[in-house]
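Q: What would this complex look like in 3D?
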Amino acid sequence: MNDKTLHAVPGPGAPITEADLHAYVDGQLPEARAAEVAAFLDQHAEARARVQGWRDQNRRLREWLAPVADEPLPLRLPLAPPAVPRRWPALAAAVALAVCSAAAAWFVRGAVDGRPLQVAAAPDAAARVAGFAHRAAIAHAVYAADARRPVEIGADQEQALVTWLTKRLGAPVRAPTLAQAGYTLVGGRLLPGGQGPVAQFMYASAEGRRLTLYVTREAAGGKTAFQFAQEGPVRVFYWVDGRYGYALSGEVDRGELMRVSTEVYRQLDGPTG
Amino acid sequence: MRAEDEALIVACIPSLRRYARGLTGDRERADDLVQDTLERAWSRFSRWQRRGELRAWMFGIMHNQFIDSVRAQRRQPEIQADAELPEVAVRPSQADGLEVRDLDRCLLQLPPDLRAVILLVGVEEFSYREAALALDVPVGTVMSRLSRARERLGALLGARPAAVPTLHRVK
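A: Here is my prediction, written as structure tokens for the whole assembly.
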């Protein structure tokens, strides 16, 4: 590839070319050259009109297409690498159970002595059990960082949000109230999960720290203790309780996450849980 | 696969959808394109070496998929007639709706390669170098396509003061 055509920046006073005019419109000129082009445009009405026309094109194209990026993602889009097809014999279930117990033990220990805890990495079954926690962490990383549009439906329409998510998930879902724990609901969105849609609620503290609660039906059945996972800077507590799997994610310390998870668990362990 | 890489790919999706919509002018076709692109990206990611240029890589996959689909349609003229030449007789009620429809139609009259460049640079704000990577052409080609795309789009838009159907089709 010949990159030199672009990066060979003409010296001061070099004639202004059409390429300069395009690069000027697209904000791709070094400052000094852009100033030369601006001076040139002051003197040349025809070039000025062309540049203005191109700017209008950019503006109109952006305005036309801007709403697309804010639409909810269609659920058929694959948001994660395809799971490697696995057989799922009774043995794996037994391993999963063992992992859960181990994790529970770790959790209790962590809670007692406050030392760092990590989920034992039993290869296959743990991966399966932790599948939704992993996706939750990814979804957190993507949307919690989105300053402009972190949610599809805001907390000001909480009823609409809950109704919509309930309808799409096919089972009643609600957003816990975490005001006492110091977090208020920002809103929520619907995301494609491993098997069918999942709901993501977003909360923020007064300082702007964000937590997301990921609610999925893909891990339905049974009941597990809290488990902990970490994906890069994002920490996740997750558990399965009856119809739903829950994962609370945030870039906060483990103690904070545990504190809020306990509150979520307390509220959702009720009749709808 | 590292979680950060996964997050980067997922984070591309809204702009991929926007780009696909501009390329195809059609919601369903656009999301088909996004879906194919993601499937290919997930399956190829582990073999991909040029880390750090992920956006160009993703858009490059989409571009190849798109060009393939355009070629496939050319072999099926009846479908192409439907997809490439939007219907003429719809009369929107609002002026800005009209303007958008007009832009949409004019853009679809540009050859796919020109459409791609003007969208990548004008909407997705790719640098010329990044666009060259995505389209797998030299930067000079990006520049000449951009120039032609702007000239033609300007002519199409200018030649059609709102909804007078006397357009000449540029192929």
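A: To summarize the key features: Residues 78-96, 160-171 of chain B have pLDDT under 50 and may be disordered. The CA atoms of residues 43 and 55 of chain B lie 16 Å apart.
Q: Very helpful, thank you.
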